């Protein structure tokens, strides 16, 4: 897999478990537990003697599982990680030595200042690790860097947990969120694989944050759409916002001025990132209608699921940020 494909896949997965493995026997069961929870990547930190062997064992068992080598401090460590099978390199800081490696493998350097991000950009890097995130301004600092560096995506890591990860998930410049809460050292050491799977599942749910935002009603033409909209307004006192293609009655009802997708209409579901949602739904067999995709600035804003539910089409919608 080439460098761009690795970074694209990370950006679709949206979560990067950061793991410290003390015993090589834990490597494959850990990957199994993470995969069972819905994530196909992990950053194995080079803080233990068995880290490189653990990377090799995971890649042997799960070739499609993206394994990152973390806490990489120099090119010697990076070269050993690559030889072990690492798909990407994560460094806690930024150095010229590490930047030179990025022609061979995706290198995600740790950056917290505009100076560091600018150095990474000048070296051709577009995805950086915002680390340690919480002690360097958190969400507000991460978002403030998006103005001068709109082309850069961040992977915030450090001090993030299930309770605050949603704040980062709603940041437009976040490619993925990394952290040790997904597979804590205590859970790994106690071989609590089912607990890790549950945490990953809960985190994926928090990452996507699905929310039903409106129900759509199909009509035959514009006059019928307008009449239904005002009839609903008369009964419930909802305001009506008329449009060329549809009318919104209050905030929860959309009346189409045409026969749209779905036998009875549609249901709109907001999510933090449509690309994240598509990836995780595809993992469980959900298919999408490519002819329904609405793009803006290279980002999918709306896409319909192929399957209907009770006569209703379902579309994902990018949450306003």
* DSSP summary, beta strand count: 16
Distance between the termini: 32 Å
Computed structural class: alpha/beta
- Strand content is 25-35%
Strand order of the largest sheet: 7-6-5-4-3-2-1-8
Low-confidence blocks of residues? none
Average residue-wise pLDDT? 96
Biggest beta sheet summary? 8 strands, parallel
General shape: elongated
Approximate helicity band: 25-40%
Radius of gyration: 22 Å
Output the helix-strand order: HEHEHEHEHEHEHEHEHHEHEEEEHEEE
The count of helical stretches stands at: 12
Structure characterization notes:
By secondary structure, this protein is of the alpha/beta class. The chain is 36% helix and 26% strand. The protein is built from twelve helices and 16 strands. It has helices at residues 3-13, 27-37, 51-61, 75-84, 96-99, 114-122, 138-144, 165-169, 185-189, 193-208, 222-236, 274-283; strands at residues 15-19, 41-45, 66-70, 88-91, 107-111, 127-130, 153-156, 177-179, 211-217, 240-242, 246-249, 253-256, 265-271, 288-296, 299-305, 312-318. The strands form two sheets. An eight-stranded parallel sheet has the order 7-6-5-4-3-2-1-8, with helices on both faces. An eight-stranded mixed sheet has the order 10-11-12-9-13-16-15-14. α5 (96-99) links the parallel β4 (88-91) and β5. α2 (27-37) packs parallel to α10 (193-208). The model has no long low-confidence stretch (mean pLDDT 96).
